[in-house]
Description:
The chain is α/β, with parallel strands linked by helices and 169 residues long. It has helices at residues 9-18, 25-36, 44-49, 53-59, 63-66, 72-84, 99-117, 144-150, 158-164, and strands spanning 3-7, 40-43, 67-68, 126-130, 154-156. The protein has a 5-stranded parallel β-sheet with strand order 3-2-1-4-5.
Amino acid sequence: MSIIYCIDTSSLIEIYKNYPFDLFPSVWKKITSLIKESRLMSPVEVESEIRDDELIRWLKPNRDRLFTKIDHNQAIVVSEILREFPNLVEAEKTTPEADPFVVALALAKTREEQESMLTTLGEQNEYIVVCEEAPTGRGYKHKIPYVCSYYGLECIRMIDLFRRENWKF
């Protein structure tokens, strides 16, 4: 079994701000390794939320491995999530909102593996959402951690990913 992380924009931006490329190259090498191992993924909607040119340049060589296009199953799950949590996205916002797509990616992949487990032998991968949103507080019922909890998905912060992977710097 592998742990596969579905990362939100907030975590990519947070790590970029707190662990700059020039001061923490080993952090970025480890993140790149996760991407190359297909253990770190994100919906393409996350890419459209990133505004920093330096982070965009870093992502470019690995963008095809990191960012996944929405498939039929994920589209169904996004619809399900937005029916249950319509305030997960701001109706009046004109820029893309990746939150429901991040959760949908992890949930759709989990469901696909559960269904395939009925017909094949093998271990199921675990999909974990990574975001920096607080699990409680004002409006918490419309944040990624709450939605993940509702669907039985684990949601962690980037620092928790470091611990899970036993990364030492």
